[in-house]
């Protein structure tokens, strides 16, 4: 998100803290602010043409959410992404997604699942290589699981987790990985087919296998 977008947002009803928070979070997630990069209140204030107070408040919020770390004496920095961070993310995903999809399978509308499947296949066919767009279509499949189940608090929890999922993926998958892309595509199709069949056991296994394969592949490339 650049300065033009920031200026556009200023004309809306969002608070100054929310404007700065979204700007910095998006830049961290998209890796334009890289792990270990310093974040100085004064510099950010000048860059975003906004006072230091909302910058400070936004940095505090981002620190609570794990995007920023404060090092005594040195200051604020974009947080690093370690293998332990990845393990914790995948552990959380397994706990949440494997349980939620069993319940979602019983509530899934086969027509809606089929519509998403067609959209997912179309997205894959339009992508010549692994891209942010391709990743986004995969993320939609996972979000759909939570939306199908319909627990709004769980949806919000997963959205927050998904920010970290996307950030780590963009950081580590900065080049094409067509072999994993093809495998992941097939795994998402199996997830959708299991949902359409309203088969909780098959759906749980499909998600569990996908997460395990994703984590194993990440270990190889980092």
Main sheet record: 3 strands, antiparallel
| Count of β-strands | 3
Q: Specify the overall morphology.
A: elongated
CATH architecture of the largest domain: Up-down Bundle
Count of domain modules = 2
Structural class: mainly alpha
Low-confidence parts? 8-12, 129-134
Number of helices: 10
- Per DSSP, what share of the residues sits in E-state strands of 2 or more residues? under 5%
Task: Note down, in words, how this protein is organized.
There is one protein chain. This protein is mainly α and 222 residues long. It has two domains: 3-78, Arc Repressor Mutant, subunit A; 83-221, Four Helix Bundle (Hemerythrin (Met), subunit A). 74% of the residues lie in helices and 5% in strands. The chain is built from ten helices and three strands. A three-stranded antiparallel sheet has the order 1-3-2.
Gist of the model:
The chain has a 3-stranded antiparallel beta sheet.
Key traits:
222 residues; single chain; Four Helix Bundle (Hemerythrin (Met), subunit A); 3 strands; Arc Repressor Mutant, subunit A; three-stranded antiparallel β-sheet; mainly alpha
List the helices and strands and how they pair.
Elements: H1 3-10, H2 16-29, E1 38-39, H3 41-48, H4 52-64, E2 68-71, E3 75-78, H5 83-107, H6 110-125, H7 132-149, H8 152-172, H9 178-196, H10 200-221
Antiparallel strand pairs: 1-3, 2-3
Helix pairs in contact: 2-4, 3-4, 5-7, 5-8, 5-10, 6-7, 6-9, 7-8, 9-10
